[in-house]
Fold this protein.
Amino acid sequence: MSDFPSVERRGTLIIGNCQAGVQLASSLRELGDTDPIVLLGEEAHPPYQRPPLSKAFLKGEATAESLTFRTPDFYADHHIDIVTGEQIVHISRDARGGEAIAASGRIFGFARLALTVGASPRRIPLDGSDLGGVTYLRDLEDAAALERSLRTAKNVVVIGGGFIGLEVAAGARASGKTVTVLEAAPRLIGRAVSEATSEFYLRAHRRRGTTVVLDARVTRIAGANGSVTGVELGDGSIVPADLVLIGVGVVPRTELAEQLGLSIDNGIVVDSHARTSDGLTVAAGDCANMPNPSITDFGNGRVRLESVQNSVEQAKVAAATLLGLDAEHRTVPWFWSDQADLKLQIAGLSTGHDQVVLRGDPDSEKFSVLYYRDGEIIAADCINCPLDFITVRQALHTGQAIPAGLVTDTSVSLKKLLAAEPALERK
């Protein structure tokens, strides 16, 4: 432990002023904590919502100010000290607390430590990736730069057919741009949804005028005079582009956790109480790899989730753990993605499913895909079907059944099927 006698080691230091960080600070106060709280982030902005960056913000329907989580008065009234523009580069700690040193030289003492450091865009080593007009999207500065570029761009290429890439592609196409999505995998959003859902989104984006290339092998990004002009594929062809968004996923930020000697496995390893391997620090949000009871029998029973709901619920548990209270993260995960006029809502985790049931007609752009394991509902993809989504969430939360053999009849609501079945004991 470094000797910094002038730094008082008390209260909670939360590193990462994202969704999880804000919720953790708020939950500490809700649980009656009166000790100092410092919520620290690298960006110059106060804490803000990230999901709208690829949707409403790019369409001009949201501003930086409208994305802020709380007013300055909220933080002041709850005695939460917001620190912006500070990057922590070193932490030392023991059972009594510790100190965190920022790149600026500022030192922050703490008795309790929380890591809500999030994730960073996954970079791909492509020639030309440093050209003007080539961008990633993760934070407000990225979104502001992308929004400015979209105003004048004519040919937009999105490398990556995941949620972020497709959301940006849909918005760009709706504004009249020529848009091409290049996906290296054989289907879109393949890690998150079924083949039926993937195929639907492929057809839906193509119907709206977006060119989608699957199994795409990008070899380099071409340019002239320092600016991007196109993206070269493995066959030598070049897709014209004056704007390229690279959206190939994110990498959890684990640098500080590694420095502390914490266990790392696709994120910071935590238990169901959001506690890290040192038994002292907590972690929550996109950076944390946690056990999930719905996938206990698959892989190592752990999952790292990137969603607002997960960040909020996990942060609540982390706050309770810091205060010595008994809380456990067992909430049913859910996610959403807005792509043009298509709203995808996902309830549960489909890992290990052995049956997929289609409810409705994909050509109507209003249908659901239900996943079952051993005859029990475990997840659903709902496209423009909010009532199906709500019902599946309820079933997963309460352990009620939704019989696979009855769900294809869309004249009967899932809610009626749910009401007809007795509750089951959740495994």
Summary: The CA atoms of residues 97 and 111 lie 4 Å apart. The two ends are 44 Å apart (CA to CA). The chain has a mean pLDDT of 93.
